[in-house]
Amino acid sequence: MKFFLSILATILFLSFPVPGRCTDTPMSDGTQDCLGCHEYSHPGIVENWQKSSHAQTTVKDAMGVGAMSRKVSAKEISDTLSSQSVGCAECHTLNAESHSDTFEHNGYDVHVVVTPQDCATCHPVEAEEFSHNLMSNARNNLAGNAVYRQLQVSILGTPVYSESQKSFSQQAANEETQAEACYYCHGTRLEVTGFETRDTITGELTFPTIKGWPNQGVGRHNPDGSKGACSACHPRHGFSIETARKPYTCGECHTGPDVPAYKVYSTSKHGNIYSSKSDEYDFKAVPWTVGEDFSSPTCAVCHISMLTNTEGEVVVRRTHRMNDRLSWRLFGVPYAHPHSASPDLTAILNKDGLQLAAAFDGTEASDFLIKPAVQAQREETLQAVCLSCHSSSWVEGHWQRFENSIQTTNAATRNATKLMTEIWNSGLATGLDQGGNPFDEAIEKKWCGLWLFYANTIRFSSAMGGGGDYSVFADGAYQFSESLREMEDWYLLRRQSAIDSGARGSY
Amino acid sequence: MKFFLSILATILFLSFPVPGRCTDTPMSDGTQDCLGCHEYSHPGIVENWQKSSHAQTTVKDAMGVGAMSRKVSAKEISDTLSSQSVGCAECHTLNAESHSDTFEHNGYDVHVVVTPQDCATCHPVEAEEFSHNLMSNARNNLAGNAVYRQLQVSILGTPVYSESQKSFSQQAANEETQAEACYYCHGTRLEVTGFETRDTITGELTFPTIKGWPNQGVGRHNPDGSKGACSACHPRHGFSIETARKPYTCGECHTGPDVPAYKVYSTSKHGNIYSSKSDEYDFKAVPWTVGEDFSSPTCAVCHISMLTNTEGEVVVRRTHRMNDRLSWRLFGVPYAHPHSASPDLTAILNKDGLQLAAAFDGTEASDFLIKPAVQAQREETLQAVCLSCHSSSWVEGHWQRFENSIQTTNAATRNATKLMTEIWNSGLATGLDQGGNPFDEAIEKKWCGLWLFYANTIRFSSAMGGGGDYSVFADGAYQFSESLREMEDWYLLRRQSAIDSGARGSY
Amino acid sequence: MKFFLSILATILFLSFPVPGRCTDTPMSDGTQDCLGCHEYSHPGIVENWQKSSHAQTTVKDAMGVGAMSRKVSAKEISDTLSSQSVGCAECHTLNAESHSDTFEHNGYDVHVVVTPQDCATCHPVEAEEFSHNLMSNARNNLAGNAVYRQLQVSILGTPVYSESQKSFSQQAANEETQAEACYYCHGTRLEVTGFETRDTITGELTFPTIKGWPNQGVGRHNPDGSKGACSACHPRHGFSIETARKPYTCGECHTGPDVPAYKVYSTSKHGNIYSSKSDEYDFKAVPWTVGEDFSSPTCAVCHISMLTNTEGEVVVRRTHRMNDRLSWRLFGVPYAHPHSASPDLTAILNKDGLQLAAAFDGTEASDFLIKPAVQAQREETLQAVCLSCHSSSWVEGHWQRFENSIQTTNAATRNATKLMTEIWNSGLATGLDQGGNPFDEAIEKKWCGLWLFYANTIRFSSAMGGGGDYSVFADGAYQFSESLREMEDWYLLRRQSAIDSGARGSY
C-alpha cells in the first residue's frame, strides 16, 4: 500500500507542476512530497502558501537581514531547517514526539495542529511574549472562573420549558455549542480521541479524530500541551504580516457590543483615514515607519508592532504581550480596573470571594492588579505612539477624558448595582447571596447588559477617540440610561404590586 | 513564436482598445442613435456601459472563447445580434411585443424594464436556473402566504390611536411603503398604468407610467410576465461579474438581523482575509481558479460560481439556482428545516393548515421538503468547495457543529413557543387559534424576535464559520436568552396580577 | 533662551534632511524652521503633509489653473503667501492677533487651532458657505436649545441612586463627558485657560492650555471667535479631497441609529457599487465628471461636490452649505419637516413655546421653515445629480416614495405621541406640562427611541434608496411597531393595576 501510494505521489508530483519550484527558493524533500498530493487536493491553501514569505525565502536568508528588519527572532536554527523554505513538512512534522495528534502519513510523522510551540522554532520571542499575554489564557480565564461559568450557562444553556411549572430551567450547552460560541474566540481544548480510516484520492489513510477541532481561538489548548493559536491573527497558510496588521483581523473577535473595538475604530478619525488611504500604505515594511509607511494607525500600530520614526529610531518596541501597552482593563467586567498583574485571572479573589478583579460593589482586589507605577509606564509606552502625530496637549487632553470615562462609567455601574442589590435583597430576584445565578433572570440580564455592553462601549469609544455615536446612541449612554430606567421601572411596579396585594416579599 | 505573438498582440490591440465609440467593437445603428442623446442626458450610465464587457466585445467573440471561459450560454444567436456589441438598443428593444411597457421612442419600440426573459437571449441557462430558484419567487412567497401577510401587516401597518379606546389599530401599509420595505428586496409588481408626455431636452416625448417602478428586487413581476431582476446582483449598466462576485452585492439584502449573512461573513476568517487581500484577487477570471484567482471565498464562491482547481478541473459547477448547494433553510422561519422541494413555497400546507414548512410546534410538513438523499447531495456539492482549502476532518467538524446549531436553536424555539402557546391559551394574548394576528402584540413580537432574529443569527454564524460575537453577544444567544426570560417575566407578572385581582381571564 | 533655541533648531534642521526639500516647491523660511524640529518630533503629520497638495504646489500655481479646476477660491492672495507651498507656518501663524491661543514659540507667534477663518485666506467661498450651513451651528443648535438640553441630561447625566428613596436622580454630566459624547461631533467650545511650561526635546517651552481641546467637531467654537472645523471632513495634515469625497468621512458622525446615513449607504445599490469598483474611480479630479471619474455616487457627489457631465457642463455647483440640496430635515427631531430657513435653529419657537420646528403634536412652526418654492428648488438641484444616471420616471418614482415615507413616519409618530400624552395626562409619567423632563423615564425613552431611531432610520433608508433591511428589520418598521406595542402594553398594565388597587392617579 505504502509503495502504491508513493508511486501515486510520484506520478502526481511529476504530472502537476508545483508552483514553488518556479522560484529558486530550495524546498525540502518532505515539503515536495506533501505538495505532490496536496497541490491537487487542497489547491487553495497550497497556492496561498506559495505566495507567502515562508515559501519564497529560506530561513537563512530571513535571518540574514539587519536586526531591525528581522522577523525571525531565533538566534540559531539547525542547518537542515535554515537552508530551505518553510513548507508543509517543516511545520507539520516539527516536535512530532510532543504532539498527541501525530500520525503516520505516507511515511512521515505528521501532526494536524501547528502550535505556538512549533512556531517558536523560528519565532521564540513572539511565542514567549504571547504566552504571557492575556490572550493565550483566554480559554482558562473563562472556563476556570466560577462567575463566568454562571454567565456562560445563563447565555448558552438550552432552555427547557416545564408546562406544569410554566417556567424555564436551563440545560448546560453541549460542547459543540460552546465551541461555536464563547470558545470560538477564547479557544477550545483539542483532544485526540482516536484514529479513523478514510477513503482519499490516494486510497485509504488513517487520521486522528480531534475533539474541539477545528478551532483557531487565541487561548486554544493544543495537543502538545501548549496554549494559543498563532493562526488566530496570522491566518493559514499565508501567515501574512499584512493581514495581521490590518484591522479586520482584530475585528474577527473584537466587534460585538461586549468588545466593540473594531466598530469604534471604523468610525473614528483613524479608521476613516485608514479606509480612505490605506491602499497607499506599506503593510509589509519591517521596520514600520510612521508617516512613511502609513499615516493613520491600525490596531497593530498602537498595540503590537515595532514602529520607527523617519530617522530609523524606535518609537515603540514590538510586543506580542499586548497588555504591555495597556494600563486599564475595559471590557468583560462590571468595572474597568488596572490590568491584572498576571495573565492568569483565575487566581484573583476579591473581597466577596469571586474571581473578579472588582467586587460587585466596585471594590478592587488591588493585590492582584498592577500598581500605578506600572500603569504609568504602560501609558508612556502607548502614548509614544500617539505623540508621533499629536502634540502633548492633544494626548493629555485625550487621556484625561479617557480616565474620566472610566470614572463615570464605573460610578454609573456602581449606582445600577445598588438597585440590583436592593432587588436581590427584597427577594424579587435570586442573586449570589440567595444561592442563585446572578445573570439568568430578566432583570439581571438588564443589569448585565448595562455594564457588559453599554458602559463598556462608552469606554471603548473614549479610549479610541471614536467618540460620537458609540458614546451616545449606538450602544452607549442612551442605552445605558434606558436600561437603568427600565430597571427602576421594573422594580417600582413590582414593589407597588407587592404592596397592593398585601403580599410583599412573597415573590 | 515571438513573431507570431507580437502579431497577435497587435491584432488584439487593434480590435479591443479603449472603451466606447473609440473602440472598434461594432455597434448597432440603434445603439448609436440612443447614445446620440443619452450620452449627453445620462452620462453616468453610458460611461458605465462603455467600460463593460457588453460594450467592448461582440456577442460572436464572446461565444468564440473556450467552453470553460464562456459567459454566453446560448448555443445560437442571430447574426444581427451577434455581430455587434450589446448596447442600449439590443436590450431595450428585445421582445418588444411581449412587453406591456413598450413605447414608441424616436422611431424605436423601446421598453423601460429589461427582464430575465430579455437577458435569456444570450444567457438562457442562467435565466432558466434562476427561474427555479427561491429568489425569483421571492415576491410570491411573501405576498402569497397568509401567515407572512399577517407578519407584514404587524410590521408595516400604520398605527392609528383611538383616544377613546386608548389603544392602537393597524391600517394596512400603502403600496409605496410596501415597495420601500419588504418588496424592495423581494420585488414589486410592475404594472403599466398609462402613458404621459414630458418635456425633455429633445422636446415633448411620451413615456409609460409604471406602478411599482423603480425596483430591482430579485422576485420582481415584470411587464413581460417574467419574474426576477438580473440587475439585483448584476447592477446596471456595467453588469460586472466582479461586482456580483464581491460580497457587497449580497449584503444589499442579506444584512439585517433577519438574515445577517453579510455581517457574519465580514467578521469571519474568510471575510477578514477577503478584506485584507482581495485587491490581489482576480474577480473577472472565468473559469475561477481556487488559490490562483482568490484565496478566500466570497458569497459567490460557495453559492454560485463555477470553480476550477489549478489543474483546470471543475471543483463545482456554476449555478443560478443557489439552493442547489443548500440543504437547510435557515432564516425567515421559526424552525430551520430541509429546503422546500419546489421554489414556490405558497403551496406548502403544514398540519395546522399554514403555509409554513414547520408548524408552530415544530412538526415539519415533510411532504413538501427535500429528502435526506437530496440534502446529502447538496451538502456534498457545497463541501467540495470547502475541501479545496480544508481537510476532511475540518469540514466534518464544522458541519457537525452546524447541524448541532440547527438542532439546539430549533429546540430552544420550540420551548419558547410552548410558553407563547400558554400565553395565548390563557387569554393574555390573541393568537391564531383565538382569531388574531400572532405577531402584532408586544409579547408576540418578543417571541417573534427570538426566532426571526436571534435563533437565526446563531445559525448563520454557525453555518458560515463566523462564530464568536454573532453566536453570542451580537443578536445571538445573549439576546435569545434575554428575550426568553423577558417573556417569562412578562407572563409571571400578568398571571400574578390576574390572581391578585381575582379576575383571572379578564384581560 | 530664544537664542539657544534657534541654535538648536538650526542644528536639528541641518542634521535631519527635510523630505519636502526634495521637491522643487518653494517652502517658506517659517515652515522650514517648523520642520527642523517637528519632522523629528511628529513624523506622522509631517510625512502626511509632505504628500499633500499643500506641500507640493505653490498657491500661485494652484490659482493658475482653469476656473473649473481651481480649488483655491480666493481672488487675490498676498505675494508672500502665494509664492510658496502651504506649510506649517502659513496656517499656524495666520491671523495671530485674532487668536487667543497664540503663543510665542521659537520666535514665532504660533496658534494651536487652525480655524475656518484661517482657511478662508485661500478658500473664502467654502468658508462663507459653511458658515451658513447647519453644521457650523451644530454646537449652538444643541447647547442653545432648552428641549435638547433636557434630552442631553437624560442621556449623559450620571445616575445617583438613593437607597432611602430607592430611585435615581441624574447629575449633570461633566465637561469631559460632554466633549466625548454629543460635542465630539457637534463641536466643543475651545477656551484658553492659561499657559503652562513643558519639557520638550528642545528644552522648556510654554504652551497654552485649552479647555475643550482636542476636538474637531463641525460646530466647534474657536479661539478666534469663528465656528466650525474644516478638519472634521478634511483630516489633518493631508487635507485630502479624496478622503472628504469618500463615504467614511461622513460615517464618522452619521452612523448610529440616530443618523444612520453611512449604514444605509453601505447596503444600498450605490454603496455596493462603490465598495466593489471605487478603486477604479478618480477621487482627485476637479472638476469631477459623472461616469468618467466615478460611476456610483458617494455622499459628497449628491450633497457637496461640483459635478460635470462628459461635455464639461456643470451638472450641479459645489456647495459647502449642504442644505442647499436638502428640502427636508429628517433626523434628530420627532417629525420630519421642511428645513429651517436659518441655520441657527435656536431662534425657532413653535406653538408650545419650544425651540423645535414641530410641536409634539406635529404642528409645524412654519414661519421659521423654508417655503414650498424653496423646497422645490432644492429638490431640483439634488435631482440633477440623480438624473445623470436615472430616467425621470425613476427619479419621480423614488421621490414619491420618499415623500410618502415622510408622511407615514410622521403620522405614526403622531399616533405614538397621542398615547404618550395620555400617559403624561394620566399621571403615569411626568412630561413637560407636569414640569418634568419629557425624555428621562423608561416609558419616555421608549417613545423617544420610536422617532429618534426608528422613524428616522425608515426615512433615511427611503431617502437614500437603501430600502430593505434598514426600512424593516434593522432599526426600522419592526422596531418601531415593537416599541409602540410595548408602550401600549406598559400603559394597559399600569392602568389595570391602578384600577385594581383602587388607587388610580396615585402614581
Would you mind describing this structure in some detail?
The structure is a homotrimer of 507-residue chains. Chain A has 507 residues and is mainly alpha-helical. Among the domains of chain A are: 1-92, no CATH class; 103-239, no CATH class. Chain A has 22 helices and eleven strands. In chain A, a hairpin with a 2-residue loop joins strand 5 (191-200) and strand 6. Mean pLDDT of chain A is 92; it is low at 1-22 and 503-507. Chains A and B meet through helix 2, helix 3, helix 11, strand 3 and helix 12 of A and helix 17, helix 20, helix 21 and helix 22 of B.
Give the total of beta strands of chain A.
Answer: 11
Strand % of chain A is 5-15%
Number of helices of chain A: 22
Task: Identify the quaternary structure here.
Answer: homotrimer
The helix-and-strand class of chain A reads mainly alpha
- Compute the gyration radius of chain A: what is it? 26 Å
Distance between the termini of chain A: 72 Å
Helical percent range of chain A?
40-55%
Low-confidence stretches of chain A: 1-22, 503-507
The chain pair forming the largest interface, with residue counts per chain, is: A-B, 78 and 69 residues
| Mean pLDDT across all amino acids of chain A | 92
